[in-house]
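Forwarding the complex inputs:
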Amino acid sequence: MIEAILSQLFQTLLAVLLAPLMLGWINNCRAWLQNKSAPGLLQPYRTLRKLFHKDAVLAHNASSLFRMAPYIIFGCMVLAASIVPVVETNLPFAYAADAIALVGVFALARVFMALAAMDIGTAFGSLGARREMLVAFLAEPALLMVLFTPALISQSTSLNTMVATLGQREFALFPSLAYAAVAFVMVLLAENARIPIDNPATHLELTMIHEAMILEYSARHLALMEWAAAIKLMIYCAIGIALFMPWGIVAAGSWPLLPVATLVLAAKLLVAGGGLAVLETVSAKMRIFRAPEFLGMAFLLGVLGMLTHFLLER
Amino acid sequence: MPWFEFIPLNIVIGIILFWIALGVAGLIAPSNLRYVTHALLPVGAVAGVVLAAAAFAAMTQDAAVRVLPLGLPDLPFHLRLDALSAFFLAMLGLASAGVSVFYSGYLRAGEDNSPGLTCLQFHLFLASMAAIFVADDGYLFMVAWETMALSSYFLVTSNHRDAVTRSAGFLYLLIAHVGAIGILLCFGVLQGGGGDYTFATMRLVEPASQAWATVAYLLALFGFGAKAGLLPLHVWLPEAHPAAPSPVSALMSGVMLKTAIYGLLRVTFDLLNAQVWWWGVLTLALGLVTALFGVLFAAVQTDMKRLLAYSSIENIGIVLIGIGLAVTFRAFDMHALAALALVAALYHCINHAFFKCLLFLVTGSVLHATNERSLGRLGGLIHSMPVVAWLALIGTLAIAGLPPLNGFVSEWLLLQAFLLTPGLPNSYLNMLVPVAAAALALTFALSGYVMVKFYGVVFLGQPREEKLKAAHDAGGFERVGLLWLAVGCVLLGVLPVPIILQLGTVTTQLVGASIGDSVVASGWLFITPIAPERASYSPLIFLLVIAAVVLLVFLLVRGFYHGRVRRGAAWDCGFPLQTARMQDTAEGFGQPIKQIFELFFRIERHVPTPFDRAPYYQSRTEDRLWYWLYLPVSRAAERLSGWIGVLQRGRIHIYLIYSFATLILLLAFAR
Amino acid sequence: MSLPFSAQLINLMASLLLLIAFAMLSQRRILSLIYLFAWQGAVLSANTLIVAWTTGQPHLYYSALITFALKVVALPWLLHRLIIRLNIKWDVETLINIPTTMLIGIGLVIFSFNLALPISQWAETITRSTLGIAIASVLLSFLMMITRRKAVPQVIGFLAMENGLFFAATSTTYGMPMVVELGIALDVLVGTFIFGIFFFQIRETFDSLDIRNLEKLKED
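Prediction (whole assembly, three chains):
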């Protein structure tokens, strides 16, 4: 019992505390690829510390929903970090949610973000909220379809079982998983506000989605929102690794194997972050009205993956 | 059976009669507002709670039957209370309790309908719905059905001086009667020469052939679908719900649509002794189309009550998807999966009752506070109406299907029913399952979009009109009603296992299997419909973890840093003249949906040219089915009646000649 | 799944083919269409090579070579030169918008998968489950021909359709007789030349390659 709680705490804290490092790594890679001098791996931590120190400035008509939203969103992301098998499977909280509930958690965080954006009542916030919901209403079913393909293969929607089934069977090429992987990368780019859907570094109001929503936030609220976004990116990478490269994730409670598992995870995340940086550097940001086509493609690829599973693998 | 024994069925009969008596009592002092709102309506609410309690008790017992000597001399009323009826009665009781309490605070004198008359119509409405649920023969069923239609018609046309309301009521009554004809014909086919119209006889009759069974099923789908708002018989819903007073819309959306679902379940699983798999696929397809249609149209609405009405269409579509799945599984003898799909559908019924009633009542409060129904003239109400706003937030999160509230539980169960199929015998069906699941996921995501639009435009942002700053919050009775429903949403979401266990008795009666054992296999904390390794979900842990993290982070941040706040102006990018009209409007929020799904809508646009003296932009989004189906049908009906009208000359001699000719004909040929 | 490794590779190639067919359906730039067509040819020749290696049929090696030479090198180069001279590297216009096209595409995929199931149960080659994918890619290329407004994407659709047919042939009967194959290859090559000539003629007559202009040639 105590062991289980300790394992759960270890994984949650690992994901939460290392998320800004992952963000720093991706930013560094992007800077290297674009021939700029990198800001340093620990820059996100310094940014967070700076933000926490500041006074929060709220608009005159900000409601209590606006003030509570960053905490709720952060809480949702911490919950997601406890559910996804990042380093270990069979954690106690993992039974509290399966793949569908995970998508639900992300949806909850996103709805609160959109509502907080609409709260101040300026054009930017509501524009960002509308665009975010536009991207979301296609990304969420696409993510569900992507998660359904391994669910059909492992006959379960529990992430534990999926990781166990996919990690322990002999190496086999599943075309349906190939489709699902392509679709997953597209959804990852969309949901985490990466190029080609959104530019995480822009501050031009006409081109941003995620930034438009958090425009009014400052100080500790902004810090929590940025941290939550970093955790979300890390969780998405962890889901992708768990589903498509699951070797190396250990069962909870096997303490001697834990350092190895953490190292393997670090290596995979390094590769994932590098790959993400490469993808961002070679693509250009799409017009906002091309985003539904992009996500529609991801959605249909997910459906194709399920169909191919029925045709080729049953 | 002794005349009065304290069994649930007798209690239910008592409550029905009590409600009718309450209604009649309202006529004693029809214009006395306080009498109706402080005495009659709250008592009606308490009666609703008693009804729910009796129904819960009845769910675990065996079915009870009773014959009442009311009605015609040779046609007494048969009543029966079994698990299915008990579930729907519980839903009626709990939802109506909240709505009645709200109505006590909402009803105002000086509107077109006097309070006493409203009280009569309201309680007759409730009593007739309860009577539908316990009817055990076709006669009582149709009597109660028609009473429900009539009483709701009078409630819908409460503001009868408004022409739009009158035409909405007319359309509602018309389609209700078209549906009633379908149901009547269905009962006729079901009784198949059995001699009388009791349900007991219909249960024993074997259909003459599969064709007749199909006819019965299609008639039931048509008749009950007209009342439920299934495509293409849905056109009355977006007209009638906005025209009615908000508590009436709440009851209509929340409970009345479910009487149609009850009827469909009763006919398909209880009365019809045949199972054909393609009925289920047809129902599933219809439900999918209805759900997508509802949510797409809701996304482009600018009137808050029409938005909620289309959202009701979407949710009924989702329930029908569950029923269609259950029928298909049962036809292939997969009873456990049929039970799962049925549980998902029934859970969604009761969820919808709670969160839709809550949202309609919220619109009522907003309407009374601001006198505005159009989304383009609302906004920023969270500052002036905080209680209503927070309770509305619970309703919005619930209807968007977000964990840990109740909407997510039924969505989760439905997706599990889709996914955990071991494989249907028909290969086309096997491949349609993922596509249907994809369309369902799309519907769920779109409903989140619609609800963010609804809540954000009404309650958040800046007020779009000056008078909104003076809006007052809801009164005491209204708050109690809203709180009752909101607490219901939370409880249904966080403690689903006891409800699913209760539903197990219903599914055992209908399909002969129950998922109750596997659901409780991991304790009351987790739902595990099949097995823990296959899927599990615990909403309570969700809620507790998020709450704990929120609290912890709040305390940590305050402890390590500080909680200082300053107020300043919002970011205006250097442009000083920010007004409230620069926010997104409801049309603007729906514009991406309109653009992507252009084919589904019929859009008429007037775009200004540079040479207009008074340029304006107008865009109207309409329902294509109105022009494709209803207008041609109504024109054909008019032409037909025009021809028959030729017979009516108005001169007495012609009519006498008609009678004379008929007499001669009969004498000549009927020897 | 305990399929042998070669069968898994073939399944993977088949899914890649379908993926490319869908990608072509959603492309907006003619240049990308040509690159995708080249990739499709590469996947096709790789697949033929694998089948040749596992089943030991020598004529499939020659088949793979011809496919590679023709569809990965010659035809894309020809088309590239063509569009540079016609100066139409960019925007592709569609008759109906792209998401709807893709939805219809999914419907076609389901239809072809179900069509192919009974046939694939009777065939005896190792690639029998890929017949559905082959039919699907043929239908998808046909859909692409229908929903495009300019002439060049229609031609590419036609060529992609031939790719799908070739894949179907390899999947059920281990390829066609050499004579048939050489004949088809020659037809396709000559056809492309003729298309190129026609493009210039159309452009000279109507000053644009929009095929709606051809509608003016009807009896009125």
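The radius of gyration of chain C is 18 Å.
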